[in-house]
Amino acid sequence: MTTVSESPDSLTDVAVEEPPDTGGAAHPEDRHRLTAVQGLAALSLDAMASVAYGPEAIVLVLAAAGGHGLGFTLPVTLGIAALLAVLVASYRQVIAAFPDGGGSYAAAKTHLGRRAGLVAAASLVLDYVLNVAVAVTAGVAALTSAFPELYGDRVWICLAVLVLVTAVNLRGIVDSARVFIAPTAIFVGAILTMIVVGLFREGPVSTAAAEGHASVLASNATTVGALLLLKAFASGCSALTGVEAIANAVPSFRAPRVKRAQHAEVALGALLGVMLIGLSVLISRFGLQPVEGVTVLAQLADASLGHNWAFYVVQFATMVLLALSANTSFGGLPVLMSLLARDNYLPHVFALKADRQVHRHGVLALAAVSAALLVFSGGDTNTLVPLFAIGVFVGFTLCQTGMVLHWRAAGRPAKALLNGFGALLTGISAVVVTATKFTEGAWLIVLALPAIVLCFEAVHRAYRRIGDDLGLGRVPEPPHRDHSLVIVPVSNLSRLTCEALNAAVSLGDEVRAVTVTHQDADDRRASEALRRDWELWNPGIDLVELPSLTRTVGRPVSEYVRRIYTYHPTTRVTVLIPEVEPAHVWQRLLQNQRGSVLAHAVRRDTDAVICRLRFRLAAGRSRS
């Protein structure tokens, strides 16, 4: 038998420290970590899927200037690709500088200070949560467009997809990567094939997808000014969401994890850049005009491949990848939450790992908040899109600014200049997107961002107060022995009572058995029978009767413990509660739960140590 103290959680009850990077040597847990290819599948789905709406976001803004405005699609995309290259180079360095993960949070906290780090963390939390909701609703929207009869059930379908992605991630990030490698490969292959085939076309092979749909080109076209181009650039930067996910989840990679994560980051940047530029070239080549009800990607597939089975492969692959791109958040946010928990900005439970290197509590928390968003939005993508991508721009800007200071301290002005330029572009994008989308819901992000930071601060203050009370960081006094008293609540004589008293006399200097007595006739007869049997047994331990006017059992015991502390304040009191451990789980329904009631009352009202002694029926022995 052993005893377990149910004292409050200690500040030191955080996750086991991450093992150091072992270079090329294999680590026993590597089978639960990612290779570069698996990391690309598990952590880049958000960025990959953004090619479905990034170019479209550019085209829709430029359409305000008519056909002439659409001619600037490629230059704007090249600007976004240049920013992508800056971000990839920057996050490649962030991976090397912060191998424990954290990305923007770690860079901002180290180089810009604690508050800036918390703002970066809050922006990433918002981005990851909204990414799940947007990804799922966008994928389901593609499904309901093909099958309109499912539109009324879109919220339930969204929740079903969320449950699927959550269940896969609870199995471990490696399992999720294996599941999502095939959809990722099919999508990337389909897009690249469409681009290559389209480059050899002199004109669109088909326009069937756009037939019968009204053009969204402005009839009173505006001029193509700097503000319009800047707005198109900021809107198109939504294609860059997810670039930071790999840097946030470096601990999820196999050793050498830094090199593997860097390879995955570079591969993501290369694939994303090629796809964005290739699609923009096709938009210009085919003179594509945006129409209502048909995505730009669908029109490009129609123009390049024809309105045949290949067209539907692209659409189906896009739909699946959009829905599954929520997995990027499940790979990145739980790791970020574990770092925040380690720094005492979130409850320490988020730093704990289950088997297969799963941050289970972070996965479940993300799923719960995302489910609430899906229900709140009614499964409507347009309700969530205005809120999307603002947070990630804030994170980009803080990360880039932090890396400027990093390179200045290292005496590398050229790299500092590159990151400074990237910080300027992402900062401008954050301001433009927030301003243009403010009335469409972006004001919620403006309020939510500081609110999350305040929550981080509140948790940190609470942990600091607990640390002061526990004397963490100070050498405590030498341990000393006090008189110990063990109290054993009993209601009848049985083998369980005998085992409990055996444990009690082994634990304390003094043992007292207590029983709660009530006033009605049946209870008095039971109390008298217990007293008579106790005297016949004569275990050498006093039986103390605690009269109670009510039917409660917890309060009389806790009041008795308080009286002991009043007269003997230096006594160490332990309340040992004997309980039966049933042979089958369903038999727990047969128990009266008096042990739980007693434990709750004593824990709430006193400082006594609580021990729950379990007597296993099937094995015929006790354990705790």
TrEMBL record:
Q: How does it sit in the membrane?
A: Multi-pass membrane protein
Composition-biased stretches (Polar residues): 1-10
The residues forming the signal peptide are: none
- Keyword Kinase applies: no
The UniProt keyword set, sorted, is: Membrane, Transmembrane, Transmembrane helix
Give its localization.
Answer: Membrane
Gene3D superfamilies the record matches: Amino acid/polyamine transporter I
Segments of this protein annotated with the region Disordered: 1-29
**Taking the first listed entry, what is the main subcellular location of this protein, grouped into a coarse class?**
membrane
Annotated TM spans: 70-89, 118-142, 154-172, 179-200, 266-288, 308-341, 362-379, 385-405, 417-435, 441-459
Q: Which Pfam families match?
A: AA_permease_2 (PF13520)
Tell me the PANTHER family matching this sequence: POTASSIUM TRANSPORTER KIMA
Task: Quote the protein name from its UniProt record.
Answer: APC family permease
Q: Which organism is it from?
A: Streptomyces durmitorensis
User: Top-down, what is the taxonomic lineage of the species of origin?
Assistant: Bacteria, Bacillati, Actinomycetota, Actinomycetes, Kitasatosporales
